[in-house]
Amino acid sequence: MAAPKKGRRAPAGGQGRPGRTLALILIAMVAMVGGMFWYGHTTPRLGIDLAGGTTITLKAKAEPGKESAVNETNMKTAAGIIERRVNGLGVSESEVQTQGKENIIVNIPKGTNSQQARDQVGTTAQLYFRQVLAVAAGGPVTPQPSGSPSPSASPSGKGKTDGEKDKATAPSGAPSANPTTQGRAVTDALKAPTPTPSASASGKPEAGKSPSPTPTPSADPAMAALEKKFTELDCNDKKARANVAKGTKPTDTIVACGEDEGVWSKYILGPAEVDGRDVDDAKGVLDPQRGMWIVTMDFTDEGSTKFQKITSKLSQQQPPMNQFAIVLDNVVVSAPQVNQTLSGSAEISGSFTQQSAQDLGNILSYGALPLSFQVENVSTVTAALGGDQLKAGLLAGGIGLALVIIYLVVYYRGLSLIAILSLLVSAILTYTIMALLGPAIGFALNLPAVCGAIVAIGITADSFIVYFERIRDEIREGRTLRPAVERAWPRARRTILVSDFVSFLAAAVLFIVTVGKVQGFAFTLGLTTLLDVVVVFFFTKPIMTILARNKFFASGHPWSGLDPKRLGAKPPLRRSRRVSAPTDPKEA
What we know:
By secondary structure, this protein is α+β, with helices and mostly antiparallel strands. It is about 45% helix and about 20% strand.
């Protein structure tokens, strides 16, 4: 009877098709490198200490008895406001982030006046409610002949007539962090008082009273200059926005800019009627009855009186003069219209999403908080010094890499080729990911991050050494190269995983418990540790399996690094066959 055929058994821990694994990592590399060139981000984003610039550390301070104002929500809101201020200086790549519970770090690249930036970021936010006198599209307005309509009607549709506003809804779509919602209606949150006869629900004036006219060319030199400034203002220009209301006071009539979903508009605004300290509380909430997000506002006793006075006046005006602008740092963040007299509490409704409602609520609350910031530290790094530090870091990395390669060549000879190729793959992956992470998550390569990458060279080389030594141990036991490669892998794999896990755990703990630039070191160390696992599993092991079939390595050439004689190998292992005793006496 024929014995059943035994299936071919794969070597323990082996890879039946190493070529597929190599192809997988090579395709991933090509895709990432291609993505890097496709998006145009071919170099990692550099931090302040390498590119040059100014770092400002701000510490939040609360008034006595109101320490609870310094919390995570308010700190994030403050960071967003400060980022808008810094961007208003014409800075396109500034970084504003919270650090710990009470600090905000502002990184401003080179080319910005550090003293001006320090003055801007260290001041408390100024929030005011002002009447809208005129509104137009953000670009310059062509001068019109006398008697023509004033620029209160926006070509973009923001200055619609009263009838159109009654029908139109606020624009929908992706929310802006600072929505300008001119079409949103403000109604009494308590819903108790009925609109007085003098307050029209549609925003139209009471019968017998004429609305306040929109601004027309004035003989007053100050007003004439203001109207000229309004006409010539281009709110699409960042520098023009930054300087439009500089040096103005709360009691002044001003020109300001506001953004709605990326579209800028310009306003003429009356003197401040209510200020941020008059807001007791504000938040974005979901109205369960209407199923829409709204922003509720509660005023202090004094603020309630002021708000009642201005809404009583605005409710009798025609658009756009029945709108009040919520102005933060001279930028209009919202401009809802008023349809009735309000007091005590109010709500702003419209096409809010959860994010846009909460953003506006946070801005209104922040303007009322007794929160200020003190400049703790200002450090400036020149571009030349940053360049020198970058060169020094790259030089240190190059020297470290050269020493590792020399050691591998001297000690492992031919095996060093596999190690060098693996280091090259790891370097390509690290560089590409760092370049892509810059625009994706704002990762900036600073000097500690460079140090983390240098340390990672040793971690990566250590994984190769562990595997190579396991292979050599198997050869010393008398095995040939191909079975030695496969038998060594499970043992080396466990050691590599444990070692990399400890390194990654240390990097994760360091990233969590530290702040500032040290996090750059921890992040880079953790990233390169993960890449070490990927490279060893998807490149080093498959290529070692393929090269084990090569005669140069399989025959144990003296320059292969796997010479059995040099390694002190035992005689080849031979399996002895057992001869079973015959069971049939006739066969004996």
